[in-house]
Amino acid sequence: MKKFAPLYGSILLISSAGVLVRSIDMSPVLIAFWRGLIALILLGSYAYFQKIPFAISKRNDAFTLLLSSLFFAGHWVTYFYALQISSVAIGMLSLFTFPAITALLEPLYFQTTFNKRHLFLTFLAIVGLSFMVPEISFSNHNTQGIAWGVVSALCYSLRNLTMKSNSQKYDSAVLMFYQFLFVALCFAPFLLDRKTAKTIDSFEHLLFLGIFTTAIGHTLFVKSFKNFSVATASIIASSQPLFGIILGYLFLHETPNKWVLIGGCIVLSSIFVESLHSQKNNS
Fold first, then answer.
1. What is the pTM of this model?
2. Domain spans, the chain
3. Which of 124, 188, 205, 224 is close enough to 270 for a disulfide, judged by CB 3.0 to 4.6 Å?
4. pLDDT tens for each residue of 86-126
5. What would the pLDDT profile of 232-274 be if each residue is shown by its tens digit?
6. Is 8 exposed, middle or buried (0-12, 13-18, 19+ CB in 10 A)?
């Protein structure tokens, strides 16, 4: 049972992002700034004391890192916006279309052959989203939340694809440090015309988001790879929206309607199918 603790602990911490963002009365760009700043201080300190080199040796690698950081910043802001205008359930479930989006983009990005199974799973995710959309109207906040959640999923997929080559050359802590640094620098100008009162009022939530949800949560998830295969960890991690919905119900009293739950189950089923297939192939 002890070996399960880091994995389930990481999932619970990462799932808290939805509730925390919904609880912070600040713009998405400012939430992204503070989350990035707090996380980069922690991660930078860790890399420094572990004597991990910060150097990015090649110019092309630096450009790729910059591009992936741009997608990462877009992912955060659009995800936070989706959560704020809709609900924890809709924001998290629409974000979890990113595996299907990645399955479509990866053959284009790496110039490989399309996988028929991936095309089917992408179709399954789209069907799930169609259940979640109450009406095709951008005046509806839930529709807007789903749209921004899918944009966030697209940005996250592009970030992961552009990050892949560098992840094989450099320490992940250093790569994440630079990504958090880019996010903080990118959104720092938005501090100039904002009052600090809301930041002070929300600082406890921001600290939890930066320290526990971001730095510790993702570190524990990586640590779980020592006891589980990546495929197994991914299967269990796909329960994040479920944890997020439960936290939303407990702390924000948000109860998703049956269509959101049905659509969410269809979206998540595509992740389970792919993860199980990957585990079978890698066993």
1. 0.87
2. 28-282
3. 124
4. 999 999 989 988 877 887 888 888 888 877 777 777 788 88
5. 565 567 778 888 998 999 999 998 888 888 888 888 887 677 6
6. middle
Helices (H), the chain: 5-23, 28-49, 59-85, 88-95, 98-110, 116-132, 141-167, 172-187, 197-201, 203-208, 217-223, 230-237, 240-252, 258-282
**Predicted confidence (pLDDT) per residue in 28-72, tens digit:** 999 999 999 999 999 899 999 999 999 998 999 999 999 999 999
Three-class secondary structure of residue 177 per DSSP: helix
By CB atoms closer than 10 A (0-12, 13-18, 19+), residue 110 is: exposed
| Inter-CA distances, 52 with 38, 174, 175, 184, 217, Å | 19, 8, 11, 21, 21
